[in-house]
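User: I'm putting together notes for a lab meeting next week and I want to include a structural view of one of the chains we've been expressing. I don't have a solved structure, so I'd like a prediction I can at least talk through. The sequence is below, exactly as it appears in our construct file.
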Amino acid sequence: MSREHIHFVTGRLAAPALEELLAQLAPEAGFDYSVDVLPISVAALMPAAWMATRVRPPQRASRVIVPGHCRGDLQNVVDRLRLPVQRGPVDLRELPAYFGQRGTMAESYGNYDIEILAEINHAPRLSRAELLERAEAYRRDGADVIDLGCEPGDTWRGVADAVRALRDAGHRVSIDSMNPDEIGPAVRAGAELVLSVNRTNRHAAVDWGCEVVVIPDSQEHENSLPNESLLETVEWLDARRVPWRADPVLEPIGFGFARSLQRYLDLRDRLPDAEMMMGVGNLTELTDADSAAINVLLLGFCQELRIRSILTTEVIHWAANSVRECDLARRLVYHAVQHATLPKHLEPDLHLLRDADLLRYPPEMFQRMAREIKDPNYRIFAQDGLLHVVTAGAYWRGEDPFQLFEHMMAAREKPLDAKHAFYLGYEMAKAAVARTLGKNYQQDEELAWGLLTPDEGGGDREAHR
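Assistant: Thanks for the context. Below is the predicted structure for the 465-residue chain, given as structure tokens.
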């Protein structure tokens, strides 16, 4: 079978970089190619209608790829060439990923078998509308069960009404309390799981008719005899046919974290088929670190140990996206374990601070652009720890955006208007952030923050350039 022949369309400035990239990419990805360099400096500025009359693919071409920024309806180009025409990536450095050579998501990716319980903390303090709003947000982020966190020392008299409201809205509900006077009304109203049960309240579990989470009686006792009290409660519940899942309790760093992990391992060895749960918030909420990577590590531990449910919270600010993080993490670790592959180059939305790959332009490109550009617009880049600014006949680079701006203004014949100055300041700030953190910067495009990437809106940036 003959190899596919792809015809790439570009402008004069990007042509050398595209040719260099395709020379390496085409053999790896298994296609032949040709490059059409149109009479325009910047490929992103070419309208589809203008391009339609100028593209000349060879007869052997099977499809045409135009720059991602190309404006307008491509149907005219398709009709004229009688070939499929597609927009490629906005940044030509992303062509390897576009052709499946780097950073692409596996076809079978996305399955999971870990259930997420998302706790609404201090639920008795919230109005019915606030509870429903929080529950719906958790469901959108991937929560399977909404956990109502009660307050020790008080009995929530409105718990049954809250459970019914959540159930009427289509949510599965668990109740987080040790108080039988709270738990009883909650399960009668439709709560399907009780967190938690030990020797102090297990007598009431016989009447609840639902599954319970078994925890140890005291951590001091468990440190010398791993899981002894938990196993004793499990045996007591089994004798009375009360369904359960076990949580040996994850401890914070400095308070028995390593030993608590050992308790999970010990329990799995002693009860190979038992249902288990882990409260990951005990680490994410109580550790001075962004929660995403911690969630991935803990869910990886759960996946390998067949712990099929986790409880997470979003109380402290650095853990404010934990439900979404856990939803992505459970897919990543499931794929890694099921396919015996590294959890790598699969989930770009978990790269929040740094990008997965730092893309580079050939260093000589900036000087070449300065020679070939004819218009006065500024092109901004961040690469090799420096900011780079190019315009017709001029190229500046440096670490300090304020100094670069002074050089740019000194070379101008007239001052910038306010809109243009604002635009350049905004883009230079983004480029400086990208340079500092090791992120890819593409002028007029949002920086990628994984699942936190905002939509910067649809303002007309070209009008400000």
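A couple of points you could mention at the meeting. The chain has three domains: 4-98, 115-346, 364-463. The radius of gyration is 29 Å.

User: Perfect, that's what I needed.
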